[in-house]
Design brief:
A 6-stranded mixed sheet has the order 2-1-6-3-4-5, covered by helices on one side. The protein is mainly beta. The chain contains 1 helix and 6 strands, in the order ββαββββ. A hairpin with a 4-residue loop joins strand 4 and strand 5. The chain is globular, with a radius of gyration of 15 Å. 25% of the residues are buried. The chain starts with 16 loop residues before the first strand and ends in a 27-residue tail after the last strand. The longest helix is centred in the middle third of the chain and has 11 residues.
């Protein structure tokens, strides 16, 4: 992918969109939790109005304001979206980590950490796993695996 200029949105002129952010302490939600709207983990959901230039750091701040125990936590972010297989199933892609204690922002999307650069599309979900950074080992904490039979055509980086 080329080194595109950062996305900048005039937040005074461009209306925000609804982002459904799901959160869980100590791990991500199962894809089964997204198999039907009736199964969505709404007890662990924030509905946020934001823009395409929103960063993982900004999402962490919004989460921390609603979930106090996440304020100093290390957050792993995952994109949950409809698979391209035509069966109405959801799939996932890990997109990065943010930790306020060390102000780290790394992972697959660290260099382009806005929602737009992470290939977020309106209708996708963000799933956040948060945990105490003291008990977390260093590193990303997740491995990127290509799921067989489902290529995310929005993720065309080869960095």
């Amino acid at each position: 992918m080329s080194n595109a200029a950062p996305i900048k949105v005039d937040r005074q002129k461009v209306p925000p969109f609804l982002l459904r952010l799901f959160f869980k302490q100590g791990g991500f939600h199962s894809l089964d939790d997204f198999s039907s709207p009736r199964r969505f983990p709404v007890d662990e959901e924030l509905q946020i109005y934001t823009w395409r230039d929103c960063t993982l750091k900004e999402l962490h701040s919004l989460l921390a304001s609603a979930v106090p125990e996440a304020a100093n936590a290390r957050c792993k972010f995952r994109l949950v979206y409809l698979a391209r297989n035509g069966h109405g199933e959801y799939t996932k892609r890990d997109i990065g980590i943010y930790s306020p204690r060390t102000d780290i922002n790394n992972g697959p999307g660290a260099k382009r950490d806005t929602l737009a650069h992470l290939r977020f599309m309106i209708g996708d979900f963000i799933d956040v796993s948060y945990s105490d950074t003291v008990s977390e080992p260093p590193g990303l904490g997740f491995r990127i695996k290509q799921q067989s039979g489902d290529k995310d055509t929005r993720d065309d980086d080869n960095e």
